[in-house]
Design a protein that fits this description.
By secondary structure, the protein is α+β, with helices and mostly antiparallel strands. The chain has two domains: 174 residues, Aminopeptidase; 172 residues, Gcn5-related N-acetyltransferase (GNAT) (Aminopeptidase), CATH 3.40.630.30. It contains 14 helices and 13 strands. It has a 13-stranded mixed beta sheet. Helix 9 crosses helix 10. It starts with a helix and ends with a helix.
Length: 395
């Protein structure tokens, strides 16, 4: 009985591959992807046509994102431009919408490649999540098969998707492995400010916000190069504590430049001395906490809770309805607890990878610990250089 069921599933998969036109006479993925971005690459399926588009050049992209309920700041041209400027990643999107009409679905990736690592598709690098903006499970199923063929054509070594709720999008991830797992924290901003404040943990959040105010801690918001440099100084301190190199300075500059008014740095200052900072992004009534950093000598003043509360206050004034506090590694219970104390709703974020890494996670963990010991003793200049050299290969 089990054998029969397996044969049926394999037949269905083979049939779907046939629908995609994966026979030898169809154009290869190399032919499709190597065409000029302005031209659509086409492969036939019954009644639907799969095309590749360049989201940075396609005039339909931004209006499509505004219409789609699951789009986020990480899908926008501005974020993709920041990735391309900083790391040279090539953005590419797949859709079944015909050329010349409004887009009704798409999945966007960056092609991450360098002299050190094999080319791979990532949706999206340095982004907490990026839902496939496809509502028809059949379209998504066919797309995944197409991407798998791209790997067999040696166009990319692997495919990584970062859906917010994989189970809600597609029920058969059989060929895709669960890779990293994170906790995702979302805060509903629709209640009034008093209700939001009193929903926060009293000792570790409310009292620290109030103490920061008593101590005369101020919040300075901006996007100038001076703000970026102070943010980066605090980032180096924070990454050193974590045993990790900081991303390159130009990454934060490009975020500010490309996202413009949809990005902000907030500095918590004591006697004009920056002691903590956060970088937030805004899009479609959602504010996203992307990066945070601080000087540990001033932690008792409550700079980070104070800044997050100021961000909530300003988001309410702007009419935002959701605060995305980002992902937390499951191995970091302290960060998970900190974010949960703001009254957030926590969900599981699972990245999907094809064909999946076979490396022992224990071996990976030991290598990471060894690397952290090395990074922890590097002087600042060498730590910054390590970040500039390593991050383009990470994706």
């Amino acid at each position: 009985m089990i054998k029969s069921r397996c044969l049926i599933l394999e037949s269905e998969r083979t049939a779907r591959a046939g629908w995609l036109g994966l026979a030898a006479e169809e154009p290869s993925v190399s032919d499709l992807i190597n065409r000029q971005p302005a031209r659509a690459a086409i492969i036939s399926i019954p009644s639907r046509t799969l095309q590749t588009i360049d989201p940075l050049k396609d005039s339909r992209w931004e209006s499509f994102l505004l219409r789609h309920p699951r789009s986020s700041v990480f899908h926008t041209k501005s974020w993709l431009q920041a990735l391309q400027r900083t790391y040279g990643y090539e953005p590419i999107a797949f859709t079944t919408s015909p050329a010349g009409v409004e887009l009704d679905n798409a999945v966007v990736f960056c092609l991450v490649k360098s002299w050190l690592v094999s080319p791979r598709l990532v949706s999206l690098p340095f982004s907490d999540h990026a839902d496939p903006l496809v509502d028809d499970p059949a379209d998504l199923s066919n797309l995944l098969l197409f991407l798998e063929k791209g790997r067999s054509d040696h166009k990319w070594a692997s495919i990584e998707l970062r859906p917010m709720k994989a189970g809600m999008l597609f029920t058969d991830w059989a060929a895709y492995k669960d890779e990293q797992n994170y906790a995702l924290h979302l805060l509903d901003l629709r209640p009034n400010l008093d209700a939001l404040f009193h929903a926060m943990q009293k000792d570790s959040i409310q009292r620290k916000v109030l103490r920061a105010k008593r101590e005369g801690v101020t919040c300075e918001e901006g996007r100038s190069d001076a703000h970026v440099r102070e943010f980066y100084r605090l980032t180096i301190l924070t990454r050193r504590r974590q045993g990790l190199p900081p991303p390159p300075l130009r990454w934060y500059r490009n975020i500010m430049d490309c996202l413009g008014e949809n990005s902000a740095i907030r500095l918590a200052c004591k006697n004009d001395q920056p002691i903590a900072a956060i970088l937030t992004l805004s899009y479609k009534q959602t504010i996203t906490y992307k990066y945070g950093c601080s000087d540990a000598r001033y932690h008792k003043l409550g700079g980070m809770p104070f800044l997050l509360w100021k961000a909530i206050e300003q988001a309410k004034l702007a009419g935002d309805t959701q605060f995305d506090l980002g992902r937390s590694d499951l191995s970091n219970p302290g960060l998970i607890t900190f974010k949960s104390r703001f009254g957030t709703v926590q969900s599981k974020l699972t990245y999907k990878v094809f064909p999946g890494h076979r490396d022992d996670r224990g071996v990976y963990s030991r290598r990471l610990k060894a690397a952290k010991r090395v990074f922890a003793i590097l002087p600042d200049r060498m730590l910054v250089l390590a970040g500039r050299l390593l991050y383009p290969h990470i994706g």
